[in-house]
Design a protein that fits this description.
16 helices; 8-stranded mixed beta sheet; single chain; alpha+beta; 24% strand
């Protein structure tokens, strides 16, 4: 008899296994960073033999090896805690958490889609009908079974298999009386397009084409099943109900999965080793007198030269933070990071170090400061995901039960911080603010939550994209490995520019050092100037022009102006705003209005 619970667990780097009833089956490898981004909780992943959905994080904080193993995976980042509300963060489990290439089998996932299709005879099976040893073979013709190409999703994040039985019978029961009739899917004349797909019920002979399946109202009479297949109990939250229409999507197509992440730099004082150690054991250390605290911390860190004053200052910083955490906001975190980056010179024994570099004479009117961040640590946390709509208003929870932590990874690398001339930015903003009213209107009409939107943000964001595309050809990093962080704040009362800068950085979980490509660019004035010259030259022309440069309706929900894949867009791992709020004209102007560009 087939087992009712077919559960899979997946490998991250490498983590991964699966369970079939009470048996565990390794199905493939996923890198740690992918578990926080592309293949996070709720994502469908195609492995060599099996297709699965990454399961919730409910079991991440349990270890058969004891509490110490969980403690070793904890990450503390004060600023990220403020942004996300999490008390701390937890890395995915690996056999050796310090080695990014170590393996374990502790990241769960479940078979999904649950419907399997035989490309030879066309029969569709539920995985529960199959024996574990023959799960990849068609019971009828012994050909290979493949995961169903079609799934249904709704804007509230629910997901289920495509209802083949419901579709072929137009929402009615099979006339044969069979509760679960066998459905066959075939291609007319062996074609491969969607128009040629046809479903047939082998019990009653009913048939129906799949040609209309992707239309907006194809499933208007099909009630949302309220399933979250990444939960151990897919119907755990079904009691909340859902009145949204389900839409048909290809399992690997657009709209099935949009991961949401938050990140924050580990900056002074939080980048100091002594501060990080106090954060991890704060509750235990709070019971000690200050006279004993210094001795305990020196022993803990094996650093006899650590002064009493340094320990007490660090203790007070953590204590104040614990007491006032709720009073801080995400904006205050950005302001703190901006202040440290703008300072230029930050020599720290922990996880952050920077120094100022010279700005080329040609660009001194545009920039106030150029900072080289030669040691940088970023904590990247996975906060949830959405389906259908890339918006934070319908975030799907990543655990069935509330957790006080979020999954995260700690990344190290290097970066370049460029602080713009605030006076020049203010002048540019005042002259061209009316241009972006349509973009703001599109954002509001689509309920796209972004409180930091401004004309300045659009210009800074576009600059970051163009700069990343240019330096990827110079420094040896792929475009997808370079990331951005935009610091933009306008004082609406006084109409002043308070923050105006971009951080371009590279980071990875397994490098205490990096290739040094970004550092070498910022350290050499001539190279930096040549890159900016080349960037502006390339920004003046796009293969999509004149349509691209004159457009005010491009991208997701028309949230871009002059920006397309040929000139401005980046891999989504690089962009902090889903490739939205971009306008190449804000940098180089329009053919008939060059003054619109900031660099004129």
């Amino acid at each position: 008899m087939p087992k009712p619970n077919f559960r899979k667990k997946v490998k991250d780097e490498n983590n991964g296994i699966s369970t079939y009833s009470d048996k565990k089956i390794s199905v493939g490898d996923i890198r740690k960073t992918q578990l926080i981004t592309t293949y996070g909780v709720g994502a469908i992943v195609d492995f060599k033999n099996d297709t699965v959905v990454i399961a919730s994080t409910d079991d991440w904080d349990y270890s058969p090896n004891g509490a110490d193993e969980v403690e070793n995976r904890k990450i503390f980042n004060e600023n990220l805690s403020v942004i996300t509300g999490a008390e701390y963060f937890l890395m995915p489990r690996t056999t050796q958490s310090t080695n990014s290439f170590s393996q374990s089998k502790d990241i769960p996932s479940y078979i999904f889609p649950e419907k399997l299709h035989c490309s030879n005879c066309g029969n569709i099976y539920d995985f529960r009908e199959l024996d574990i040893k023959e799960r990849h073979k068609c019971p009828k013709c012994k050909s290979t079974l493949n995961a169903s190409r079609f799934v249904v999703v709704c804007p509230h994040g629910h997901m289920d298999d495509f209802p083949y039985d419901w579709w072929v019978h137009n929402g009615k029961p099979c006339p044969s009386g069979v509760k679960s009739p066998r459905i066959k899917m075939t291609n007319i004349n062996n074609r491969t397009d969607i128009d040629s797909l046809r479903l047939e019920c082998t019990e009653c002979g009913a048939s129906r084409s799949m040609v209309q399946v992707f239309s907006e109202n194809a499933l208007s009479d099909f009630q949302c099943t309220c399933k979250h297949p990444h939960f151990k109990d897919p119907l755990a939250k079904a009691s909340y109900g859902c009145h949204d229409k389900m839409r048909v999507r290809l399992r690997s197509g657009s709209g099935v999965y949009f991961p949401l992440t938050k990140s924050a730099l580990l900056i002074p004082p939080w980048s100091k080793k002594v501060v990080n150690a106090i954060q991890k054991d704060y509750e235990i250390l709070s019971a000690l007198d200050e006279s004993k605290l210094a001795s305990v911390m020196r022993n803990k860190l094996n650093d006899p030269e650590l002064s009493d004053d340094e320990i007490i200052r660090s203790w007070n910083a953590v204590k104040i933070s614990m007491e006032q955490k709720r009073e801080r906001t995400e904006l205050s975190v950005y302001e703190d990071e901006y202040a440290i980056l703008s300072k230029g010179d930050n020599d720290n024994e922990g996880n952050f170090s920077s120094y100022p570099s010279a700005i080329p004479q040609k660009y001194q009117e545009y920039f106030n400061r150029l900072t080289v961040v030669d040691r940088l640590t970023v904590t990247l946390a996975f906060t949830g995901f959405t389906r259908i709509i890339r918006n934070e208003s319908n975030i799907v929870p990543i655990s069935q039960y509330p957790k006080k932590w979020l999954p995260a990874v700690e990344l190290t690398g290097e970066g370049i911080f460029i602080e713009f001339n605030k006076d020049k930015v203010a002048h540019w903003r005042k002259a061209h603010s009316s241009r972006y009213k349509k973009m703001k209107s599109a954002m509001e009409s689509n309920n796209f939550v972004f409180n930091a939107f401004s004309e300045t943000y659009v210009m800074l964001h576009t600059f970051a994209h163009l700069f990343i595309r240019e330096i990827s050809n110079i420094c040896g990093y792929s475009t997808a490995s370079i990331k951005e962080k935009i610091y933009s704040e306008i004082d609406e009362k006084n109409d002043n520019v308070k923050m105006c800068g971009v951080l371009i950085y590279v980071s990875s979980p397994d490098s205490d050092s990096s290739l040094g490509g970004l550092i070498s660019i910022a350290d050499d004035k001539d190279v930096f100037e040549n890159i900016l010259d080349s960037m502006l030259e390339h920004a003046n022309w796009c293969s999509g022009d004149p349509l691209c440069i004159s457009s005010t309706k491009q991208g997701y929900k028309n949230l871009n102006y002059a920006a397309c894949h040929d000139c401005t867009l980046l891999p989504e791992t690089s962009c902090e705003r889903f490739n939205c709020f971009l306008d190449r004209a804000s940098i180089v102007g329009l053919p008939d209005n060059s003054t619109l560009g900031f660099f004129i």
